[in-house]
Amino acid sequence: MMSIVVNSKKAMVGSMLVRQGSGGVGGARNATTVAVAEAKEELRKKEVVVSNSDGGNKNGGLVSYWGIEPVKVTKEDGTEWKWRSFRPWETYKSNLEIDLKKHHVPTTFMDKVAYWSVKSLRIPTDIFFQRRYGCRAMMLETVAAVPGMVGGMLLHLKSLRRFEHSGGWIKTLLEEAENERMHLMTFMEVAKPKWYERALVFAVQGVFFNAYFLAYLASPKFAHRVVGYLEEEAIHSYTEFIKELDKGVIANVPAPAIAIDYWRLPAYSTLRDVVMVVRADEAHHRDVNHFASDIHFQGNELKAAPAPLGYH
Ligand SMILES: [Fe+2]
Ligand SMILES: [Fe+2]
Predict the structure, then answer these.
(1) Which of 8, 101, 114, 116 has the greatest number of CB atoms lying within 10 Å of its CB?
(2) Per-residue b or e along 48-68, where b marks 16 or more CB atoms closer than 10 Å to that residue's CB
(3) Nearest bound ligand to CA 278?
């Protein structure tokens, strides 16, 4: 979007030059041409060549008229921080000690519906992906990043409508969505989606976003419980992924650079180390969502309990 605006302004400067060059007369023409040339030089000086690896225009040519200068951030070792989508203060060391086996036993009718809905979704997922866990992880993360955004958005709107605080839950759910998206940004470095997988993601997103949106409107208690169980399944999938890595069925390649920076992993970490920290993240999401559902189950709104902000 920015580059379109910038290019159109550049084109405007160019066309001014052409117009003045072809139709202007004498001193007035020269003065305008000089002014435009100066403006052009000013633009050239301001030109920021962006070279990064998380979404920037590698060829540069980006010009800012708005006084927004890129802030140069460095890592602890003094080298430049290359990720624009997250900054060093948003990174963390994963808590690998978290209990992976914790399970919410479904007792109420609603919990059982949530539990068996998730269990039944496992069947087509297993059939589609078989044991291709890299691909499976990448595809499922495209879905996993949706609930936090939907829940966060609905709580945001509720906070606006009611003139009240959210107790930190908006941020907590948006943090979860962002964390899941970082899982996707990581796995797409080791597994490339095929065209029909991209098409599937497109279709599934359309259905799942709307289904979850309606479910959250109807019953946040149910919606959070579903996500709690989805996270339990995610932990299981990543455990199977680790087993395949240990057996040598899946190559334990070096960890993507983005993962090393995001989870502050040692420089020579491997894919196995990445799956370990991602699995720990899923366990944290499981706790947050079951907790949120429990708050509703006790007849409260989420803001009644302090939100587990920064819970990794
Ligand atoms: Fe995830
Ligand atoms: Fe998750």
Answers:
(1) 114
(2) eeeeeeeebeeeeebbeeeee
(3) 1
Q: How far apart are CA 290 and CA 236, in angstroms?
A: 17
What is the Å distance from ligand 2's center to 282 Cα?
Answer: 4
Q: How far apart are CA 112 and CA 105, in angstroms?
A: 9
Nearest ligand to the C-alpha of residue 180? Answer: 1
Q: Distance from the CA of 285 to the center of ligand 2, in angstroms?
A: 5
Q: How far is the CA of 142 from the centre of ligand 2 (A)?
A: 11
How many angstroms does the Cα of residue 312 sit away from the middle of ligand 1?
12
What amino acid occupies position 309?
Answer: L
Ligand nearest to the CA of 173: 2
Per-residue pLDDT of the chain (312 residues; tens, 9 = 90+): 333 333 444 434 333 333 333 333 334 445 555 555 565 555 455 444 444 456 655 556 777 888 887 788 988 888 889 898 899 999 999 999 999 999 999 999 999 999 999 999 988 888 888 878 888 888 899 999 999 999 999 999 999 999 999 999 999 999 999 999 999 999 999 988 889 989 999 999 999 999 999 999 999 999 999 999 999 999 999 999 999 999 999 999 999 999 999 999 999 999 999 999 999 999 999 999 999 999 999 999 999 999 999 898
Q: Which ligand sits closest to the CA of 147?
A: 2
CA dist 271 and 253 (Å) reads 6
Measured CA to CA, the distance from residue 239 to residue 276 in angstroms comes to 8
- Going from the Cα of 65 to the center of ligand 2, the distance in angstroms, rounded, reads 40
> Is 125 in contact with 140 (CB distance < 8 Å)?
yes
Side-chain half-sphere CA neighbours of 219 within 13 A? 14
Residue 140 Cα, ligand 1 centroid: separation in angstroms?
8
